Amino acid sequence: MPKSKSSTDSLNVFSYAFFKSLGEAEKPNVQPVQIPSVIKPEVRVAKKQTKQPFVSFLVFDVEATCVQGANFDYCHEIIEWPVVLLRWKSRTEDGRASELEVVDEFRTFVRPTFRPVLSAFCTSLTGIAQSDVDTAPTFVEMLPQFKMWMVKHGLICPDTEKRLQRFTWCTDGPFDIRDFVVKQCFISNIPIPEWLRSDVTDVRQLVTLWLQNRDSPTKVEQPSYRTHRSHKRPSLNLTSQLKALSLAPFEGRQHSGIDDTRNIARIVTELARRGVRLEPNLYINPGRRWNWMGSRRGEVLEDFL
């Protein structure tokens, strides 16, 4: 679905899935990148070694509760937590690399607590049934399981939870951590874990920058934290990103968290092969507030929903 001024001006009548598939609602005046309707298979160029500062990449795309007609201010609760861990096949002493491989996956459904019954719209959109979440751990119960998985792969210290190596979270757009994780931690009455507060890479933004640099080869621009805050950029959904990179179409079911995550991992792997520097470009505000949040963490004001 193409993005238009009329659609962004009618923010309050669309579901959260619309915004997640098309991009940020805060960018109503940005013209979309023009991608040909038919893209010929690209000749596979030689792998390009680039100095890469990060060792591991945690690719993930959560699914959350939703109701038809709600906008992005809704009090979403996470109901699926899927992560794909990528690492370099080989990396030189000075940090140059080009080939990523899948090391492991973590996936669990998550039981919502504020509104534990899924809407029919949510089940239809995500494919997640009520029985899937009824028997799943809550978000608070899930976090220790996921932390042990991170410890197993040498990402964090089991006692202090400090990072043991440089890794960045890779998401499709800013929504998963900036919005869903921040909301969920408030609802669950817990602080955002330190290992989730920073080093987040918006892959959608990387693809956009790659397209712009490809079309303007004399202008080299590396993404940075300032990129998200100071530039208005067009936004491509997952299917458009795969198409822009001449990759095979989306594999699996769209809006299945694990399938979305695996396809983002394909995009990250291809960007690395093309020599794109993979580093954080998204700022997360752990104290971000929505009008349904009460004065105390965990307090939801239903009158504002």
UniProtKB/TrEMBL annotation:
Q: Which GO terms describe its molecular function?
A: 3'-5'-RNA exonuclease activity; nucleic acid binding
- Give any Pfam family that matches: RNase_T
Keyword Hydrolase recorded:
yes
The reply to whether Hydrolase figures as a keyword in the UniProt entry is yes
Concerning Gene3D superfamilies, the annotation shows: Ribonuclease H-like superfamily/Ribonuclease H (3.30.420.10)
According to the record, the signal peptide region is none
- Exonuclease domain boundaries: 56-277
Cross-referenced SMART domains? EXOIII
Q: Which InterPro entries match?
A: 3-5_Exoribonuclease, ERI-1_3'hExo-like, Ribonucl_H, RNaseH-like_sf, RNaseH_sf
Q: Keywords for this entry?
A: Exonuclease, Hydrolase, Nuclease
**Which superkingdom heads the taxonomic lineage of this protein's source?**
Eukaryota
- Which named protein is this? Exonuclease domain-containing protein
Q: Which organism is it from?
A: Sistotremastrum suecicum HHB10207 ss-3
